[in-house]
Amino acid sequence: MAFDPVVSTSIIIAYLLFILLVGILAWRLESTGSLEDYFLAERNIGNIVGFFSMAATLFSAVSLIGFVGYWYKFGLSAYMAIIGAYTIVVAALYYYLGPKVWKEGRKLNQVTPSDLFRDYFESSLYGYIVAFSLIFAIFPYLVVQFKGVQIILEIAMGPVIPVSWGLIAIAGAISAYTLLGGMPSVAWTDLFQGILLLGGTLIGGVFLVLTLGGGYENAFTSLLNTKPEILSIPDPTGVWDWTFIMTFTFGVFLSSIIRPQSWIRLHYFKEKANVRNLSWKIPAFLLLIQFGGFSAVLAGSALIPNANPDHFLLLLYKNNFHTVFLGLIASAGLAAMMSTAGSLSHSISVFILNDFVQKLKPNWREKRNLSIARVSSVSIIILALWISTYDVGLIADLATASGAIAASVCFPQVVTALQGTSWPTYEGAIAGTIIGGSVAILFLVVPYVSAPFGIYGGLYGLVANTVVFIGVSYLTLNRA
Amino acid sequence: MVEDSRSQRILNGLIILLGLLYFWPGGFFLQDLQFRVLGWPFFALWVVAIGPMTAIFLFYLKSRIKNRSEQNGV
Known about the structure:
A: 19 helices
């Protein structure tokens, strides 16, 4: 099918202008301009906007390009690990811990995990350590969003506009609405981006099976004849066996509630019931998206057998359909990435302001603080954009490592603080965070070091944190 | 309410059972690509749709019961 880069570029530009308009309207109509508004939209977001904003934030370049690339490369093994994690582990976290985070936030005016720890451990030092560690852990997640944008622009816009210009335009659009409107703008743009993401991936995936694969029955028959190994466990590479699937599930996804963009959003809901309902709404949203993603793999993995996994979905559209469809799916992809990038840069700026600036300089005026938040948000976007121009490997690999490091840094401490457990000490918490984070980095980031026994490297960090946290807490308990 | 708390315990049990069925060991024994349902190999249908949808439904019930209890002041 002939590819017309002018048509796809026009669709992408129209989409960007639309999102910018929504962000500006939300800023003009919804924002009060206060710091509490920039942080949490005055803790007054309703059910529908709140849910779509949370969903659009969670589902990003990783969900659209990265996870579909995983199904394409590793098949059902990776699907079981990730969808199983969302429908059981993530659901349980939102059900049991989500309402507690919301309640503590209302009671003690908390915004970030560091606020929870400052109140619970009565240690400013631990608050700073956690804030710094989470920013460090989550930053790669922002980088992969821009890597995803780059892939989309390369494949969907062709030579019409240089990729670097497109990247700068998109980073500018995200900065503009995040910077002007804070949380209200981010949440309202997320609503539209979430709807487009869901429609684009689910309808697109089913459409691909029906048109390219001749329906699900034929598509499965064809796949069983050509690549049956992607429907079995372990996967074709042999890495994703039962041990790896189970340990990956817990090692990565226990962080889902700790990630700054999710944690901050738990506080903006009007009612606790809305937070608890995320336990089934978030997995349902992901399942619908990834049903579309799996359908695309089912329909197209035999047609494009040796693609870069991160390029597979877009190449499938580009090679087999009219350019308008490519433009639409590219816009859905940009929707996913922009919403997450906007939310992440916003969350990191909230961390910098709430956890460092306001604690170190409590008397600074609100106007100055807002300016600091905006400047940090834009600086973070520029830094992530620059790093994304280097080779960072597979999108889903980097994103899952980022999640695993976040879990290794403070998941056990979050559970004890929310439960109000009596034995933990801040010395134990600090030791656990430092050792856990270091072990996770050793196995996930340091080159040529691999985790033993076929266990996912991030889980070692989580276990190390738990053991050290408990051990040091008991050793220092009497003194505390 | 007593009924709500009993329902929550039953749902917790079902979620744990589903977790075992979805992952190891259940997933191991379900690996039969020849047995087809609705044109899908049953294992694929289980992993892609039935298992996750069942988990979502169980959490929907749990949330609904808990929210109702809280609204009634329990």
